[in-house]
Design brief:
Blueprint lengths: L1 H13 L15 E7 L3 H17 L6 E8 L2 E7 L4 E9 L2 E9 L2 E8 L3 E9 L2 E8 L1
Parallel strand pairs: 2-4, 3-5, 4-6, 5-7, 6-8
Antiparallel strand pairs: 1-8
């Protein structure tokens, strides 16, 4: 839940002057936040966050999937060396993949709520990012 709170806080902080209309009771939708490192300092910060998550979850490999819920699908493809991928799904009906080609990539895909779809591709060298999705 701390990750969800962070995602919602960061998303609210990025809204600048946008008017939010009330949603009908049966409305569905999704909220997404994509963070990609633009420089070495940002890359180190994102990699530290992913490393702390990995320690907390006792991850011992370069690719890890955690699923809590039903009807979720996840996949990780890695070609190269030194890359790390984490997919965490809470809820139902999520679909997520991370494809890493090249060396030293790091990405975390975090999906909450229901029915979100996220596909991340990293090519080349040392790309770093985090994607957070929440669906309702």
């Amino acid at each position: 839940m701390k990750t969800l709170a962070l995602a919602l806080t960061l998303s609210a902080a990025t809204l600048t002057g946008a008017a939010l209309a009330p949603l009908p009771a049966r409305a569905s939708g999704a909220l997404s936040l994509q963070l990609n490192a633009r420089n070495a300092d940002e890359a180190r910060a994102l990699r530290l966050g992913l490393a702390l998550y990995a320690v907390h979850r006792d991850v011992r490999s370069n690719g890890h999937v955690t699923q809590n819920g039903v009807n979720n699908a996840a996949g990780i493809v890695q070609r190269g060396s030194g890359s790390n991928a984490i997919i965490h799904q809470e809820g139902r009906g999520h679909e997520g993949t991370i494809t890493q080609r090249g060396n030293n990539h790091a990405h975390g895909l975090f999906q909450f709520g229901r029915n979100t779809t996220g596909h991340v591709q990293q090519q080349g060298r040392a790309q770093t990012g985090v994607t957070i999705l929440y669906g309702w």
